[in-house]
Write a structure and sequence with these properties.
Layout (H helix, E strand, L loop, with lengths): L1 H7 L11 H37 L6 H14 L6 E3 L4 H9 L1 E4 L2 E5 L6 E6 L4 H4 L7 E5 L2 E2 L5 H8 L6 E7 L8 E6 L1 E4 L5 E6 L5 E7 L7 H16 L6 E5 L8 H9 L7 E6 L7 E4 L11 E5 L6 H11 L4 E4 L7 E9 L2 E11 L30 E3 L5 E3 L8 E2 L7 H9 L1 H12 L10 H10 L10 H15 L3 H15 L3 H7 L1 H27 L3 H11 L1 H10 L6
Helix pairs in contact: 7-8, 8-9, 11-16, 13-14
Length: about 575
């Protein structure tokens, strides 16, 4: 009516303003058209560069290599998890996600003199183990190919192969390297266990009271391994129920998201929301819920994490924390709240790209590094304190986003000295452990006594390590600064005196770090006798984090107080 009246008075009727939804739709359409145009122009430019280089470059080019390098360079600026996987890398990717490969089932390493490839560790029950290979055996040839001076990658490629085929190895056994032995080993499909060890932690009275499960990675079907371990522990505990259970996720960098959801379902009711994934594309938005009935819905639970616990590990730890279902013990986790998907891109290659962020039940995302907002120099930084937000668990406890999972009970990290780490990386401890293991009777009560350690120290005489202490490094910087500022001549005697006092003496370092070096040596020998499971069992005896988790689980009042009243720290 108003429009008609305005028209009758000789005034043009005003145009109706478009509805807000229509404006938004038009804007989205225009933005999509501009993006499509930008993509088309960019692809044309890339193709033209590729064509011109391959037609006119002065030397012969490798188009496949150029595409691989261009793809990786293009993705490098996004985040560390987005990458191009050409066909020849898919076998390694499959091993990482499934935990399986076809081969002999042994770790190998370069010998300390760099002349040989040798067995580092045969996995229990694999073809290499059944064939009698031992840590320290030198590999002289594989299927007639000389291995002297070869790299580990070269040897590994030839030891792997189709399941059912036979590999012929010529070795020098560690017991007597003057002899040679020919070994024929049938390759098999090797499945690395995701649960290398599970067992019991004793209480103060020496009774098996708290179950322990170590999970190394979220590979396909790892949830079945956790389930089997849990059911076995429950059966062993009968007729008494488990007094507590700890799930150790230290150094577990994640893997298959679906396996994490299944594991959470062992301890929570059916249809419990574990996480939401949210991406730019709607098809990447999904809610993950538990499916089956829980098998340990009321067992007191602790999850152990450290700074290397990432991705799926953080989903399990964070979800159980948000639901007040488990006490989290350890240090702040890595902070990877990004989800990757693989998509085919031709020539049997794939691109693994970040497609979403995940949000656990409290609503928080634990991503610690903001790749979407880079500094002017291209670097990225942690989520700033001002953007860290509080969230609430099911019981109302305060937890935070923006930087991994903060534990309910914080533990002090355990670090080895730099000298010990360099000594271990050198291979000299492995050499000593190889000889010790074949000349001594196996015992689970192993102690590296004074005479044994003295023998190791003597074996290090004449061997040098590429070791520079932090103090030496700082002194070198001081000397260079003094030279630039013309003080060097005046203070040279004082600097030289300091240098002599802190000069690395390898034998002195061996005594300074003797206690932790002995621990590393004992672990290495135990591994040779009882494999990785034996090493983990041996380590638990001196693991303060595990002891603290067990104390909490066995103290019902403290366990309940943490899960109902205790907020987590902000950083």
């Amino acid at each position: 009516m108003l429009v008609g009246m305005l028209t009758l008075h000789g005034t043009a009727a005003p145009k109706r303003k478009p509805a807000a939804a229509a404006v938004a739709a038009d804007s989205a359409t225009l933005a999509a058209q501009r993006r499509d145009l930008e993509i088309g122009r960019s692809m044309e430019t890339f193709f033209n560069i590729f064509r011109e280089v391959n037609l006119y470059y002065v030397d012969t080019t490798s188009p496949a290599r150029m595409v691989e390098e261009a793809g990786n360079a293009m993705l490098e600026g996004l985040d560390p998890y987005t990458e191009y996987l050409p066909a020849d890398q898919m076998a390694d990717f499959e091993t990482m996600t499934t935990g399986t490969y076809a081969g002999l089932g042994a770790l190998i390493r370069q010998s300390t003199d760099r002349r040989w490839v040798e067995v580092s560790e045969p996995y229990r029950g694999t073809p290499s183990d059944k064939a009698g290979l031992k840590a320290g055996d030198r590999i002289l040839s594989v299927d007639g190919v000389d291995m002297r001076g070869r790299s580990v990658d070269f040897a590994s490629e030839r030891m792997r192969g189709k399941a059912g085929t036979v590999a012929t190895l010529v070795i020098c056994p560690v017991e007597d390297t003057t002899q040679t032995r020919t070994v024929r080993i049938k390759r098999e499909r090797i499945t690395m266990p995701s649960v290398p060890y599970y067992g019991w932690i004793k209480d103060s009275a020496g009774r098996d009271s708290v179950g322990y499960i170590r999970l190394n990675g979220f590979t396909e079907n790892c949830a079945d391994e956790v389930r089997n371990a849990l059911l076995d522990l429950q059966q062993q505990a009968a007729p008494n129920a488990l007094r507590g259970l700890m799930l150790d996720l230290r150094d577990n960098t994640g893997g298959v998201l679906g396996e994490a959801v299944k594991i959470v379902g062992f301890f929570t009711p059916r249809n419990t929301v574990v996480l939401d994934t949210r991406g730019r594309v709607p098809e990447m938005n999904e809610t993950y819920r538990t499916v089956g009935e829980p098998i340990a819905p009321t067992v007191p639970l602790a999850v152990i994490i450290n700074s290397a616990s990432a991705s799926a590990s953080e989903i399990v730890a964070g979800t159980l924390q948000d639901l007040d279902r488990a006490v989290v013990v350890g240090t702040r986790s890595f902070g990877k709240g990004l989800v990757q998907s693989t998509r085919p891109v031709g020539e049997n290659g794939y691109v693994k790209l970040t497609t979403a962020k995940y949000y656990i039940p409290s609503g928080r995302c634990i991503q610690a590094v903001d790749y979407s907002h880079r500094n002017e120099d291209g670097s990225v930084g942690a989520i700033p304190d001002s953007l860290i937000r509080p969230f609430r668990t099911a019981a109302g406890r305060v937890v935070y986003d923006g930087g991994g999972i903060m534990p309910d009970v914080r533990m002090e990290p355990v670090y080895f000295g730099k000298f010990t780490l360099i000594l271990a990386a050198s291979g000299y401890i492995d050499d000593f452990a190889n000889r010790y293991a074949v000349t001594h009777t196996p015992t689970r009560q192993l102690v590296i006594d004074d005479s044994t350690y003295a023998r190791f120290c003597r074996s290090m005489q004449g061997r040098t390590l590429n070791f520079e202490s932090g103090t030496e490094r700082m002194l070198g910087q001081l000397k260079r600064m003094a030279e630039r500022e013309k003080y060097a001549e005046r203070i040279a005697p004082e600097l030289e005196a300091i240098a002599k006092k802190i000069q690395d003496d390898q034998q002195a370092e061996l005594q300074t770090f003797a206690e932790e070096i002995r621990e590393v040596m004992a672990d290495a020998v135990i591994t040779r006798w009882y494999y990785d499971a034996g090493r983990l069992e041996f380590l638990l005896r001196r693991d303060d984090w595990v002891k603290r988790a067990a104390d909490i689980l066995l103290n019902r009042s403290e366990y309940t107080r943490i899960l109902t009243l205790q907020d987590t720290e902000r950083k």
